[in-house]
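Report of the visiting student (M.T.), summer placement. My assignment was to run the structure pipeline on a short list of targets and document each run. The first record concerns WD repeat-containing protein.
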Amino acid sequence: MSYYGNPGRGGGGGGHHHHHHHRDRDTTPNTPINNTSEEDAAQDAAERNLFRRCIDYHTPATIDITNRLYTKACRTSHVRNLPYLQPHSSYLRHMGMPLGTVGAPNPSMAYVTYLAHVTRAKNSTPVTCLSWTPGGRRLLTGNQEGEFTLWDGITFSFELIMSAHDTSFRSMAWSHNRNYLLTSDAGGNIKYWSPSIAPVQSIDSHAGNAIHAMSFSPNDTKFVSCGDDATLRIWDWATHSEERVLEGHGWDVKTCQWHPRSSLIGSGSKDNLIKLWDPRTGNCLSTLYGHKNTVTKIAWNDNGNWLVTASRDQLIKLYDIRAMKELVSLKGHHKEVTSIAWHPLFESVLASGGMDGTLLFWNLGGKGSDEPVTRVPYAHDMAIWDMQWHPAGHMLATGSNDRQTKFWARNRLGSSAGLQQDAMDEKDDEVQTAEIELGNHVGIVIGRRGATIISMQRATGTKMYVDQVRRVLLIQGTERQIDTVKKRVGALLDRVTNEERRDNNTFPSM
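After the run finished, the structure tokens were exported:
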């Protein structure tokens, strides 16, 4: 199967080509062939050993289990001792690996805190929305320039970039039958795409305002869009025509989602309100007044009873729609909440991302808690604008304002990668301030677009600020953190001064 093949090697063709090449070279007289053939051999060896990191969810273990028959040892079974087929494949993921629950800091399968891959696209811009293709073979991301980027979902390699919208992407939504993709942009344009990402249709709407979210009705015949003109609009999918305008919000509508099974639409707005609408009449059925700031995202749980809402007031609230009451209010983000996503298999598991790049995992429901189960403090350097679980539930993709898309997977057994236990233990240490003289090297410490100082803050967990007038770096953190920063900045400055010295020696001043 191709999954176990070597993604780094381009088939056998390359090899043959080399050999003809050598033969031609050997026949020409007086050519120094020695070193080149050695280089080629080294290159071949490197290619042979090149394994890209990948998260392969078609694992041999799973295939082995599914192919195995077992005997049911059950008294109530009418036919005893006959082989039974394994349970349906979606239950296999619930089977922990042996020792899976022993000694691991975070043993569950649902909380994916291990950073499997970071994509680095050239000349990239902030990622505003993303979506797995049906089946999860690829991840589609939309960026601020209005470009689609396709990433492979197993080896994470870059596949394609294409221009889709004239302005920044705002949202993506697949139809339930997976036959069409809708995208919207900051200029009020909606586009239909086929699964092969070929454009089908384009509509301009919402008076040229940004369209922040779109969602299909359960039977895919209609969809709803919401935007900065304070309205929601219901569209007939087949005729591309607007059927109804839902008015009632007092400001930009930032998020909307059609109920997974009923004729009901939820929306959240900059007027701090969450409204529930009847799409057939266009009436507002109910208003929820839980948040004290802009509602940034809402999401229906697949059970159809729970609505989760995220806001700039740093809270996530869970409503039970049957009783119209708030079940729980989740405090865990220290900045506004910018994205949320329900787990596709575990009904009560939720992931959320914040303006400061923090990624949190929650477990709600029966034995759930209103504390995050686990957190990845510096998942991104900036706001996580969008996140989506892989349909198989083994991986989460996040897209951020820091121009990166990241793939999160579950930890290896016993590993606490990505959880930053040390940073948590140091909380009690008192925070101090210190400063480092920078002299002429202010720019180098800040780095291009502030990248150096941002990554240094993230790696050390400190707060830093460059005072450009006094030419010093101010640091705020615990003693241990400040030592680390001093070492790093010292090393950086040494490197730079050494390079300058070397350059001055090679080019004597005239």
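The longest helix spans residues 479-506. The first strand starts at residue 70 and ends at 71. I thank the supervising group for their guidance throughout the placement.
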